[in-house]
Design goal:
CATH topology of the largest domain: Beta-Lactamase
Distance between the termini: 42 Å
CATH class of the largest domain: Alpha Beta
Radius of gyration: 18 Å
Number of domains: 2
Number of strands: 7
Strand content: 15-25%
CATH architecture of the largest domain: 2-Layer Sandwich
Structural class: alpha+beta
Order of helices and strands: HHEEHHEHEEHEEHHHH
Length: 240
């Protein structure tokens, strides 16, 4: 376990972007016999989108973000109220759930996300996030890995959160206009040569949503092409 944790720390420290963090965490989950993970950082503004980094099926993460499911997800509701890690899933937790909560769990299950273990994060800066390890069934190997490594998983979650905050991008003023985190993220991946489809897979959103954010960024910056928007962003950072 010590070797696995040290390897993750090295990956987090050396990672240049959020995709590097995602790969490092995915490898750690696999090493611990945990099939998939998700990190969700809630936005400070109610109208902003959360930051989601995961290796869940992209079709589900895209759907989740587009529907703003974090607003009615019972797992996130629990994270907002409590700080202790907890198990959740179909057949566990409160016996009485709203129709929308049941439907969300049932919908997630169709993508292989039926149960999980979530670690709430309430940091000293007031940020709230959650790291979840999920599975399609409550297999004995999944439960045993969670029970055996629960304390270390909390350290893993806090370490990941710290690096995700450092490498994540909040709203920024570029050339006198404010771009949202999503607009900045899409421009950042475009600068690295990623297509809208590739960026969507990384961020867990659809290609059309990526195009929407890029179009908004171009309109705000008063340019016609993504290349011009990227150049304007780079120039702003260079002169800051």
């Amino acid at each position: 376990m010590r070797r696995i944790f040290q390897t993750l720390v090295d990956r987090l420290v050396d990672g240049k972007n959020l995709e590097d963090l995602r790969r490092g965490m995915a490898e750690t989950a696999t090493a611990l016999n945990l099939s998939c993970f998700a990190y969700l950082a809630l936005p400070r503004s109610p109208n902003a989108a959360p930051l989601l980094i995961s290796n869940y099926p992209s079709a589900w993460t895209s759907h989740y973000l587009q529907k703003r499911y974090e607003r009615l997800d019972p797992v996130i509701a629990h994270v907002l109220r409590y700080t202790e890690p907890f198990h959740w899933g179909l057949g566990s937790g409160p016996t009485e759930r709203s129709n929308s909560e049941r439907e969300l769990f049932e919908e997630a299950a169709t993508f292989g996300i039926r149960c999980g273990f979530t670690i709430p994060i309430h940091d000293s800066n007031g940020a709230i996030a959650a790291v979840t390890f999920a599975a399609d069934q409550r297999h004995s190997s999944f439960v045993q890995s969670i029970d055996k490594n629960a304390d270390v998983l909390q350290l893993i979650a806090m370490s990941f959160h710290a690096h995700a905050r450092r490498k994540g991008i909040s709203d920024e003023v570029i050339s006198g206009v404010t771009l949202t985190r999503r607009e900045i993220e899409c421009l950042k991946w475009a600068a690295e040569g990623k297509s809208a489809w590739e960026t969507g897979c990384i961020l867990g959103i659809s290609r059309h949503t990526v195009a929407f954010h890029l179009d908004n960024a171009k309109a705000k910056l008063g340019v016609r092409s993504t290349t011009q928007a990227v150049a304007r962003m780079a120039a702003s950072k260079f002169n800051s």
